[in-house]
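Posting for a labmate who doesn't have an account.
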Amino acid sequence: MKPLIDPSVPRVIRSAEVTGEQIKTPGFQRTIKKLIDTPHSTVHIGVFEPGQAGSMHVHRRSEEVTYVIEGHAEVTVGEERLSVGAGDLFYGPPNVPHQFRNVGDGRLVLVAIYSPPDDLPLVSNLGQDSVVDRRSGESV
């Protein structure tokens, strides 16, 4: 995890210099690079190979804004399936279950922003009454 940074200091973060975390769960394989983590937001890059997906999950308190850089994805939101491709932006309000799946022939590359900050659930967190705030340690 990238440490919290001082949000009062401007900076350039070079994604090539950030080590990615490889998620190797079958069917959910992807690489996540957390670029920035401040008291106000979290930003990461996700790379999915063809056929791979993230988990179905919610962000209890955070909005999610995801911009697709490359590839084509299907986003499952509840019972609905949305199609997004390079240049598209997905907005997910707090507490709405969703899942990204690479449905293209090439890799899917996206940038996700969470505000307030949130960790990306690597497994489904549906059915949990609360999650633990990583800063305070309290259930929310």
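Reply:
Got it, the structure tokens are right above this. DSSP finds no helices and nine strands in the chain.
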